[in-house]
């Protein structure tokens, strides 16, 4: 038995087990704090029409997300039909929900594109840029929303949120707009010698360099990304309205602050796709909007259900691909 080979597998397995345990503990803790009869009453009283609108809203955001990724792939020289990109994107979306960390879906997307002949570093770079665009756009929407709430309700706690959003936006665009920051990033990765991370990271950065000269393309994609992220926040708003949350201007603006905070909190891979963190932090944040614990928990859990439901289209694409004869080529 190859001990050196099996050690990383055992480590990976233990990490998955640990994430499952953390998510389970958090969910059990939260379920003990909320009223299950109230939760069932909320679900029974759900406005099915508005909830269906939330599903459509999230689906459209991901169709546009697939188009954004498609444009990035084409701009880097990877020629795929949009139908193929669409299928790869939704397969990745499915695995985002069912692998232990969100990065798993990106890995599946990278594998799907590279297996038909593209450079792995090229695809990783494009997929990384796609992620950075999403983080920047989401934080920009949240930053502007927090400024509005400060002007109407005072600084606390939105002033602290501004710092968080600004701190996330700067790295996302700093490499692109500020050459000194890009050079500093290269010097840092060159020092990471183990596992050839220095050369691998440099190869990825090299693939990002051509986008620096295409500012019009990047600005157009930023505009598209802003619309995509607005739709994803609106999915939360529609689920809230379906549960009876009044869609007032202040409350909707608070969604545009709180949802990005939830998304940032779920980036560290310490639970299964943020399960438990999403609902727990949602209770804390939405309490400032006057929402009860059970309402906030149900809101975030049902929004997760929406994302899972939409991602099942990716499962259908994956099953169809597995059933395709081995000698056939992807189309």
Explain this structure to me?
- This protein has 331 residues and is mainly alpha-helical.
- It has one domain (18-317).
- 79% of the residues lie in helices and 0% in strands.
- The chain is built from 13 helices and no strands.
- The protein has helices spanning 3-33, 36-44, 48-75, 82-98, 103-114, 120-153, 158-177, 179-189, 197-208, 215-242, 249-265, 277-287, 293-323.
- The longest helix is centred in the middle third of the chain and has 34 residues, at 120-153.
- The radius of gyration is 21 Å and the shape is globular.
- The two termini are 40 Å apart.
What's the pLDDT, averaged over the residues? Answer: 80
Tally of contiguous helical segments: 13
Strand elements, count: 0
The succession of helices and strands, N to C, reads HHHHHHHHHHHHH
**How much of the sequence is in beta strands?**
under 5%
Q: Uncertain regions: pLDDT < 50 for 5+ in a row?
A: 193-199, 326-331
Distance between the termini: 40 Å
Quaternary class: single chain
Count of distinct structural domains: 1
Shape: globular
Q: Report the major sheet.
A: none
| Helicity range | over 70%
The structure class reads: mainly alpha
Radius of gyration, CA atoms, in whole angstroms: 21 Å
């Amino acid at each position: 038995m190859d001990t050196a080979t099996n050690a990383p597998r055992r480590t990976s397995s233990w990490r998955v087990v640990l994430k499952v345990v953390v998510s389970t503990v958090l969910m059990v803790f939260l379920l003990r704090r909320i009223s299950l009869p109230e939760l069932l009453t909320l679900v029974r009283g759900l406005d099915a029409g508005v909830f269906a609108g939330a599903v459509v809203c999230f689906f459209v955001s991901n169709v546009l997300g697939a188009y954004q990724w498609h444009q990035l792939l084409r701009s880097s020289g990877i020629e795929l039909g949009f139908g193929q990109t669409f299928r790869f994107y939704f397969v990745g979306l499915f695995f985002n929900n069912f692998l232990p960390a969100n990065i798993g879906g990106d890995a599946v997307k990278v594998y799907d594109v590279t297996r038909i002949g593209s450079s792995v570093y090229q695809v990783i770079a494009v997929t990384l840029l796609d992620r950075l665009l999403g983080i920047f756009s989401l934080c920009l929407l949240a930053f502007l929303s927090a400024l509005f709430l400060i002007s109407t309700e005072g600084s606390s706690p939105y002033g602290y949120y501004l710092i968080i959003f600004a701190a996330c936006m700067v790295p996302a665009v700093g490499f692109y707009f500020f050459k000194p920051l890009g050079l500093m990033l290269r010097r840092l990765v060159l020092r990471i010698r183990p596992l050839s991370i220095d050369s691998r990271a440099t190869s990825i950065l090299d693939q990002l360099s051509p986008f620096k000269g295409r500012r019009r393309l990047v600005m157009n994609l930023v505009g598209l990304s802003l619309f995509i992220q607005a739709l994803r926040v609106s999915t939360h708003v529609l689920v809230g309205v379906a549960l009876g949350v009044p869609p007032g201007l202040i409350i909707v603006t608070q969604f545009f602050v709180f949802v990005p905070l939830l998304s940032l909190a779920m980036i560290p891979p310490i639970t299964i796709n943020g399960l438990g963190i999403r609902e727990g932090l949602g209770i804390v944040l939405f309490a400032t909007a006057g929402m009860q614990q059970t309402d906030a928990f149900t809101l975030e859990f049902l929004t997760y259900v929406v994302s899972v439901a939409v991602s099942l289209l990716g499962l259908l694409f994956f099953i169809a691909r597995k059933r395709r004869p081995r000698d056939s080529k992807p189309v």
